[in-house]
Amino acid sequence: MRLATIGTSRITHQFVKAVKQTGRFDFVGAYSRSEEKAKQFSDEFGGNLNFSSLNDLANSNSVDIVYVASPNGLHFQQVVVLLKAGKHVICEKPIFSNVNEFDEAVKIADENKVYLFEAIRNIQTPVFKTLQQELPRAGKLRSAVLQLIQYSSRYDQFLDGKVTNIFSPEFAGGALEDLGVYPLYVAIALFGEPEKVAYYPIKLSSGVDGSGTVVLAYHDFICTVLCSKITYSDAPSEIHGEKGSFRINNSSNIARLEWIDAHDKVLEPVAEHFEADDKIYEIGNFADILEQNDKTEYLKLRNLSRVVLKTMETARKQNGILFPNDKD
């Protein structure tokens, strides 16, 4: 399939490099509001198309699927144009601002017989797959602490008075949307939809959360999710059961899994797989679904995306963190 991109940022560079590594899609071109940037990006990766008009990209007969990595607040508008034109879409996390947008986009995708994916790499890694298989070893689960705390250089700009996209409600920014989505995906992929959600954010003057703690309540255990763009920690994440605990190195780049028995307290390596660009796994999964028309796997991913988005929307609206695309 012939793939084009929206966005020319670092994450788009990483995605196209991973596409090249897998060989599962053929990169053909890029879109940017700046024609010069689109051409520069396309040339860098061997594409022969560049677009400065979204409609031209959507209507191109030389493009089958589009990877969207624009600012969060632009995702819905751009994705809908592409879906209506019959393009498959891979949209970078967080896929949309709210569930209303998600449901409308899914309806349009189904009507046009195309696939809509959310790019979220952590749940596709080999080590995460091992964690899913090994989880029953922990016995009855009682608690989990999943975190992603990464200081952002853009916070320095924020402190100097410049509000960049990631700290702007206009572009659906904030710590929960940008970082919290990773540990939330881990939690919901492993434990399912929580019964209750409570969020305790540190709100910035721009109106979004710079950091925060999400409490996910299940029937007989609690999962705590910590996310921050204004502090830093490299502490691991843990899942605690009555028979023992699992530890993962990081909620976004899941590369190492360890086990600690509740009785002998011995730390045991379970799985380790470091990949320079772990986007190759999600790309492979999306390509398999498209090639095999695997509706079962597609619907599983789609339903997971919806629950994660619903959880984030609930959490931020509890605290008056609102985006322009939100509806009452």
UniProtKB/TrEMBL annotation:
<dbReference type="InterPro" id="IPR055170">
    <property type="entry name" value="GFO_IDH_MocA-like_dom"/>
</dbReference>
<dbReference type="GO" id="GO:0000166">
    <property type="term" value="F:nucleotide binding"/>
</dbReference>
<dbReference type="Pfam" id="PF22725">
    <property type="entry name" value="GFO_IDH_MocA_C3"/>
</dbReference>
<feature type="domain" description="GFO/IDH/MocA-like oxidoreductase">
    <location>
        <begin position="150"/>
        <end position="247"/>
    </location>
</feature>
<feature type="domain" description="Gfo/Idh/MocA-like oxidoreductase N-terminal">
    <location>
        <begin position="2"/>
        <end position="117"/>
    </location>
</feature>
<dbReference type="Pfam" id="PF01408">
    <property type="entry name" value="GFO_IDH_MocA"/>
</dbReference>
<dbReference type="InterPro" id="IPR036291">
    <property type="entry name" value="NAD(P)-bd_dom_sf"/>
</dbReference>
<protein>
    <submittedName>
        <fullName>Oxidoreductase</fullName>
    </submittedName>
</protein>
<dbReference type="InterPro" id="IPR000683">
    <property type="entry name" value="Gfo/Idh/MocA-like_OxRdtase_N"/>
</dbReference>
